[in-house]
Amino acid sequence: MATEDKNRATAAAILPLVGGAANVSSVVHCMTRLRLGLHDRSLVDDEALKALPAVMGVVEDDTYQIVLGPGTVARVTPEFEKLVEEGRAAAPEPASSVESAAATGTATTAAAELAAQGAAIKAARKAKNATPFKLFLRKIANIFVPLIPALIGCGIIAGLNGLLKNLGWLTSVTPALGAMASGFMALIAVFVGYNTAKEFGGTPILGGAVAAIIVFPGVADIEAFGQKLSPGQGGVLGALGAAVLAVYVEKWCRRWVPEALDVLVTPTLTVLISGLVTIFGLMYVAGEVSTAIGDFANWLLSNGGAGAGLVLGGFFLPLVMLGLHQALIPIHTTLIEQQGYTVLLPILAMAGAGQVGAALAVYLRLPRNESIRRTIKSALPAGLLGVGEPLIYGVSLPLGRPFITACVGGAFGGAFVGFFNQLGSAVGSTAIGPSGWALFPLLDGNHGLGTTIAIYAGGLLVGYLAGFVATYFFGFSKDLLAEFNVSQEPTASTVAATGTPTAPVTDPAPEPARA
């Protein structure tokens, strides 16, 4: 089957299982998930969705999220949007005559009751996840996640450029590659400002305009708090604060400025007031905070070393499942902006290595469970590349204890990388998003690419081994082995993320388990 036909077939299989085109209010996607706004949550067939070969899992949050994996989701989403539009266009007009209304009165009432029940269920689920802190983190994620593809692309080009420079090859091309790699990072504050204003309900271009002040070279001629400002001072944190301020100023203007003057006065006051506060306050404050974040990260790994890596690598997956990992995104971005790479991501990536090792142990410990073994064989390549959902939600998490022992593997891998940081060999990533083997093209450090790659590869091996050993010897109780080390017939409720039957799978919680 052609790739386009396969993607359309996947979209066509998903649409009726989420209630059809009429039930879809919005369609977006992130790195791995198709995120749908739904009118009536009760119309969704969760089990049938999980049974689709392309679906790795589902997540209930403020949107209904279908995990499809990187690459796949970007191709399926446009096809899904087309089908939704086609379905809406083909939908019959609602009957308007008195006779039709009378004839369908009972059915309409019943449908309305069902819709009300569905809305109540959706509201209850949404309220459960709508704590102020989680809503704030969700906004932060919505600001930075759209930037990840550019960070990845530019990061890989930066790595290639560094390699060519070290080898002395293509000297006439490396300056051009350097420009490509650095151009986005030089202006990332503008994109952050744009997305921030959009997310907080303001005019996006005004948020971008205010944030652009931070990277404008002319600020070098301005003095604040007795010090000369420097272009880029405050970075993404300053851009974030400046854009949020711009949103509040704009909203205030919309309330008080007469409509006849709004088009002239509101944008002017928004940029003027927010710009002055940014130049003579936010840039300095955000610069100090950004510097403190960088200094703390370096101090933590220089002094904490293996201990810090142990904690970060071991607790990253629980953070992901609570949705708290989103708080790390601006920290990663700040470190990349300051140092050219984030030293935290390679350590956090060890969590995925622990999952791979744990999965291999489960494979050997359950020789009679063909369904789980098939899931592991099909999901293992994705796990090695840093896509953890199939292994987590199809293997370790449903089994319980193997999820904990997988975290132990991540802790040991993180300790290994952290130990070398303490010795002075920093291992970093020039972008966020990828993990596992997929992170190799993005690696950077302070002791040459060969040393950096060797340390990261060593961390992965330690994570694999520790996750395997911990799971093989401590991941199964006698009762757990007796329950799962048997041949299981496939059922609709035991289909894994890849479409092969497995042990019962629980619904995944907040965000993909990726560093």
SSE order and pairing:
Layout: H1 3-17, E1 24-29, E2 33-38, H2 46-50, E3 57-60, E4 64-67, H3 72-90, H4 98-103, H5 105-128, H6 132-144, H7 148-167, H8 174-186, H9 188-199, H10 204-215, E5 223-224, E6 227-228, H11 235-256, H12 259-304, H13 306-322, H14 329-339, H15 345-348, H16 350-365, H17 370-384, H18 389-399, H19 401-422, E7 427-429, E8 443-445, H20 449-474, H21 478-484
Antiparallel strand pairs: 1-2, 2-4, 3-4, 5-6, 7-8
Helix pairs in contact: 1-3, 6-9, 7-8, 9-10, 9-11, 10-11, 10-12, 11-12, 12-14, 12-19, 13-19, 16-17, 16-18, 16-19, 16-20, 17-18, 18-19, 19-20
Write a short abstract of this structure.
The chain has 515 residues and is mainly α. The protein is built from 21 helices and 8 strands.
Largest sheet: 4 strands, antiparallel
Tally of individual helices:
21
List the helices and strands in order. HEEHEEHHHHHHHHEEHHHHHHHHHEEHH
Tell me, briefly, the overall form: globular
Average pLDDT metric: 83
Taking strands numbered 1, 2, ... along the chain, how are they ordered across the largest sheet? 1-2-4-3
Helix content: 55-70%
Cα separation of the termini? 33 Å
